[in-house]
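To whoever is on call:

I kicked off a structure prediction for a single chain this morning and the downstream step that reads the tokens threw a length-mismatch warning. I double-checked the sequence; it's 111 residues and nothing unusual in it as far as I can see. Pasting both halves so you can look.
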Amino acid sequence: MVDEFVRTYIDCQEILIANLAEAQSSYDEYNKARIDAYGKLEEFRSEEVINPYGIMEESIMTLQVLELTFVDQILFKDAFVVIHCGDNYFKTKSSQYAKSVQWNERFNVYN
């Protein structure tokens, strides 16, 4: 009976040691990949250039104009939104005589 207990204990210990070795190996691979990713991120950050508007050069920014709800009861003849971003100029479609306007328009700014 004691021999069986000792054998079972040794078998479990061997399984635990194998599992720990596998876990350590997986952790080492993960850690190496994490360090490589951080290195690439730092390399990328050192190469990126931000313009005066805070936008990374050679990037695309999408602006979406959704809606306008007037808080007072004034009716506007033509409601529209104008966006200036660097040399880019955008204007939504006009909406006539409305207290609430929904445009749902998108504009891409190529930098």
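Update from on-call: the warning came from a stale cache, not from the record. Cleared it. Sanity check on the structure: The chain has one helix and six strands.
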